[in-house]
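REQUEST FORM: STRUCTURE PREDICTION
Request ID: SP-0412
Submitted by: Lab K.M.
Chain count: 1
Length (residues): 114
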Amino acid sequence: MKISPLSFFPSTTTDQSLYPEKAIEQWNKNDISQWFQHNEILTELRDLCRFKDGYELMAYARIFLDTEKFQYQMYSDEFLRRDSITFGKTPLLLHEFTKFSNALRKLMMTNKST
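STATUS: Completed
RESULT:
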C-alpha cells in the first residue's frame, strides 16, 4: 500500500492544496513546486534544482542524504555566486538549507518503496 505524503503531516494542515496528493511517481514540475512551497523551502533552491518529475526528486534525495555536508557547501557556493549577480553577496543560511534537507528526508521516509 502506498503511503500518501500528506499522511506524514499533522491533520492541522489547513491548505492541503499546497501539497500534491498523488503518488510521487506521478509528480510533475507543478507538483514539485507545490512540495517546495508546502515545506517553505526557498524558491531559489527550487530554481537551482529544476526537478522535472517525482522520480528525479527521489533519486536526488537518495544521493543528497548520503552527502549532506558536501551538498550544503556546494549549494552555499552556488547560492553566493548566483545571488551576487543580482543582489550582492548573500549566503545560503543553514536553517534554510536544513528545511530543504529535512523535507527531502521526510519525502524519503514516506516513499521508501519508490
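NOTES: The chain has one domain: 24-110.
Reviewed by: T.R.
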